[in-house]
Amino acid sequence: MIIKQDHLIESIHSALQYISYYHSPDFINAMVSAYQRETNQSAKNAIEQILINSKMCALGKRPICQDTGIVNVFVEVGMNIEWESDLSLEDMINEGVRRAYNEPDNRLRASIVSDPLFSRSNTQDNTPAVIHTKLVKGDKLEITVAAKGGGSENKSKFTVLNPDDNLTDWVLRTIPTMGAGWCPPGMIGIGVGGTAEKAMSMAKASLMETIDINDIKAKKNQSDIEKLRIDLFEKINALGIGAQGLGGLTTVLDVKINDYPTHAASLPVAMIPNCASTRHVHFSLDGSGVAELPEIDLSLYPDLEMDVSKYIKVDLDSLTQAQMDKWNIGDTLLLSGTIITGRDAAHKRLKLMIESGEGLPEGVDFENKFIYYVGPVDAVRDEVIGPAGPTTATRMDKFTDLILENTGLLGMIGKAERGKATVESIRKHKASYLIAVGGAAYLISKSIKKAKVIAFEEMGMEAIYEMEVKDMPVTVAVDTDGENIHKTLNNIPLTFKG
Predict the structure, then answer these.
(1) Which CATH number fits domain 308-488: 3.20.130.10, 2.40.10.120, 3.40.630.10, 3.40.50.1010?
(2) Which of 96, 202, 419, 475 to pair with 3, CA 20 to 30 A apart?
């Protein structure tokens, strides 16, 4: 069987474009079920936005999330395959990644930086991918392509337990420490055994499997692993973290466990979450041409529309402190007016400029403004901006007090929880922290009516933008009194009884 270079490159290209805007049917069905069950209104609103966003992306063929991920590729190479190629397997895959992320009609955000310890220079094409290769019997090439967002990847956990330690106890202690930055509801992948790197690889690979927890529950003769999956699924959801950390019934859609023999003295355990933008697809190449990818049935989506009558309309350009003081955690707002953006690298440079006495960059004025933690996808066609969902606000905690103290900023918009010291700083400065839904990037981008770079243009997605928004949906997470909607993440007990 001869695999041609162009067929593999084009298949990788097509697969990455496909997963940027299509959720798999099992994920859609699981989210619809979670939406129908949910009784917590804030969490239900978040799941609703994720589903609306997903359908919009499927129709518009634009990214589900502004973080279009680091590419993970799992390859099983049949030992009878012959190649018609002048590139290595790794180089062919990376050429497919390069073409996918620079596709003119659906440009994807390049997030990969080389020299991770020092210059952290963006590679501009999202290469290189992380590639796992296995030689197997046969004459086919089996490939699973995934795009893993930084918010969920950053919450990966690893430990080496003692052989007689309880895995469930460790998982239930650890899940609350992950906060909401991994954008639940999603999947939890667990790898047990082998060595450290084997456990991590198994955990990552498990996230590529189909959501099937309800099928497992219905089985009459469940294996020990399946019983453990069900037990963890139920106990994690019983923690009450919920969608986006807002509480509610669904934190995880499934729990996957892969295991491997290990040393008698060890019990390596890896745990990796997949977010509400979970993106992966499997395909085969047999020498006959480019991979065929599954059709998506749009009828799987319920007919949902945001009920804006439940939202409070806010004019950011005339917002007063007295108006903001009336907000309570859980209030849902529709923001209109001017916001300024800024992420990690921008905050680092702003800190240096403020501390040196240089002040803010020319053209950047935070006075009576909100800052939005976002790194948008580039615009295509007639877009004002590409998908522009929030990044994890917790990473900006170390800068928050300095920024609030020196800029006149009213508040912040991001996703996930803030640390205790940051919440206290928000209270001290009578500011607010609002959350937008992670996993609703395309939906949010439609509320952005104007966007222009006003500082640090050379930093690409990390540049500072001024944006004009109309009815941007957010939820009050920390109010001016320091009340915190995510406080349950800090109050979940470290041991689970049950």
Answers:
(1) 3.20.130.10
(2) 202
